[in-house]
Amino acid sequence: MVDGTSSTDDAPAASPLQSREATTDLTRRGFRAWSGPLRWMAGIAVLLALALVAGLVTAVVVVRRPWPQTSGEIELSGLEGEVEVVRDDAGIPQVYADSMHDLMMAQGFVHAQDRFFEMDVRRHATAGRLSELFGEDGLESDLVVRTLGWRQVAEQELTMLRPATRSALDAYAEGVNAWLAGRSTSEMALEYTLLGITGLDYTPEKWSAVDSIAWLKAMAWDLRGNLEEEIGRALTAAAVGTEASAELYPSYPFEKHAPIVEQGGLLGDVFDQDVEPSGSDLLRRPAPGGRRTVAALAGVRSVLSGVPALLGSGDGIGSNSWVVDGEHTATGAPILANDPHLGISLPGVWTQVGLHCRTVSTECPMDVAGFSFSGVPGVVIGHNADIAWGFTNLGPDVTDLYVERVSGDTWQSGRKELPLTTRDETIEVRDGDPVDITVRSTDHGPLLTDLVDLDEELDAVDLADDDGLVEQADDVARADTAAPGDGWDVGVSLAWTALQPHPTADALLALDMASDWESFRAALSDFAVPGQNVVYADREGHIGYQATGLVPIRRAGNDGRTPAAGWEPDTAWTGRFVPYDALPNVLDPESGIIATANQAVIDPRRYPPHLTDDWDQGYRSTRINELLDADDELSVAKMGAIQLDDWSAIGEALTPYLLEVDLPRGYYSDGQRLLRSWNYRQGPDSAAAAYFNVVWRQVLERTFADELPAALEPDGGDRWFTVVARILRRASSHWWDDVETDDVVEDRDDILREAMIAARDELTARQSPNADEWTWGALHELELRSATLGESGIGIVERLFNRGGWEVGGGGSLVDATGWDAREGYDVVTAPSMRMVVPMDDLDAATWINLTGVSGHAFHPHYTDQTDKWARGETLPWAFSEDAVQDAGEDVLTLTPGG
Questions:
Q1: How far apart are CA 135 and CA 195, in angstroms?
Q2: Is 255 annotated for ligand binding?
Q3: Is 400 flagged in the annotation as binding?
Q4: Is 659 within the bounds of a domain?
Q5: Residue of 19, 141, 319, 792 with catalytic role
Q6: According to the annotation, is 397 in a ligand binding site?
Q7: Closest Cα partner for 673 from 760, 761, 612?
Q8: Rounded CA gap, 200 and 186, in Å?
Q9: Is 319 an annotated catalytic residue?
């Protein structure tokens, strides 16, 4: 359903389907839509070389031209009154105005000052229009986004918003457009200057309210739930069989790791924290099988990996948040902490801001500060004068893949053949011909397989017999008589709650102005996607928790764990969702502690509605609860120290077995010597942590790579903590045996010995023959890359925008969650995107830090100034009261009404 040709004469361009294969090795680096170096970027390298010859003065002027004016006075047409923007020494703006219109307009202006290029790229990405800026390199992402129809959903949501929310969005857009007015692209961003050199003739469109709403779809995509697990279960079962696959997707260990809410249940359609009910088990049904189904799912997995990291990876993402009441603090007042873990980028996803009505009233009710998205009005996470809140991903199962029977323009539902719904899309491609696509949908959702070359995927499945990809596929097909039969094409459609319009934007602004538990819960009732765990504290001493999000109620034939048979009527969603009042919530629990780290929300034995089976396994949450429960004199500083806790649960589980392995004395036992005194902490200077993590990666590869295809090999995250911890107790588990060695049956100690020997050799080559000179930080580096020109493939251009070399501690599924992917190496791929701690007795004593600075302009002093402190575990003071803000102010910009 794709039609497009290249405008080049010397060779035909790769089709969008052909280019997908070339991008799979970039799935964890920056802008994943790039299929290679941008050919037209070569001219930039020539220009830069000439600039160096001509002198640096011009270069400095070009670089500085887009930097914002942060002091003095600027007239803005449309303002109702005077607005003051006070920036501290980190460049963080605090905005003061007399009306909501002016406050939102000023925020739009300030966001555009600091980060308009990022905002512009985001709106192109969420509208499926990256190709207009970047040519065929953006096409793969555009195909997915257009198929899902994000922009159309955002346009529908705009019509559903409350008048106050719509007014705020329009005023914000006014501010962005006031900044754009009369400004050349060279005055907007260095990136536009470089793109212009390559021949891009481009003037940014005016900002609109829909541009802001569409970015919420990107965050929903990033935190979309268990889509990867659905595909992974099906493909793993095809590779190793259903029983073995179940071992690799363990159930949540409720007996070891407590859920967030340990009391209450449903009383009718309302969650009551004092009720003690019992739940029920779900029907489990195997996924559709067969060669064509395996090929279609593998193709969909590959297509989805083409969505750029800018829009979120949706894999391995977690967060920490917790709140304690006054019984656990030194001051007797609650303290709340939050550090969301997201993919790393430059600039980071958050930008800090304060938004203050000079006189708080019903006409101008906002007095809030925290972390915002550039491009979206208001504050997403933070505190106002009365309450504080923090988010972690609840991860409800809000996506389902359906294997469909498709024939021509129809699909099968029960005994009926129903027409596919269609819409046509045209993607404009820079330096190329437009690409026309027809998006086809069943009642479940759009067909993602229309973006897959199924014949190519079938060939790949046949070739993959050598590495076991479809070793069990025929068995699965025979067990599941519902596999698509002859005469039917295989399709895979996506049902996702984010494709159903809902006024989530109402919730964000209402949350900023909530003043107590009731108004806080009322605000979150409109928060549809992504589903979140939200912790709460207020100045009156209360603490609380609320689960949010649209969670579909499924029929009996679909448990959400694996792709469902779309032609079976009992697999469809009912069209109903778990009522908001039925979602788990708790106020002032007896323990005085609420910690959320993506663990299970509540034991399903007490709560029948199915939220998901794919929780984080609970290692971080258990560690956080232990640290909080051990201290009844908690302070801001102690809370910050907990956020930096680098104790390794898998280190504690695996190390005793490593110490029992016999190794040759001397060279190969040096690493083992380090482990004998290791305290399981993963600081950047730790030699033992360096050795352990290299061993861990080797263990994963040597245990599972012989039976799993490369795409399904272990990433080393929390699920693999549980899998390995369980088989460690079984020295002769079938997983230890290397199936590629025909005449040998390996056991646990064989694999551990091989892993330790290989780890010693690897560290010798990477760092030093002297084991005492090894450091975890030298392996575990943080590199921040611009999602666009920072992935150009032109070294001199990448060096303009990328920054790196921070040696950090922590690790995947630790409280200090600097995640790395064992399939790729040791570099940080996800990280705490910010950290904040808020004491409710003194809001001016709160602390915050961002992964990057507030500026999106390369070489600006606030481009990565916070990263240095972040990497050292430091924070910034967070002034909130007007006196404290003025005292901390370094620059003051006055915005005045203009003609």
A1: 12
A2: no
A3: yes
A4: yes
A5: 319
A6: yes
A7: 760
A8: 12
A9: yes
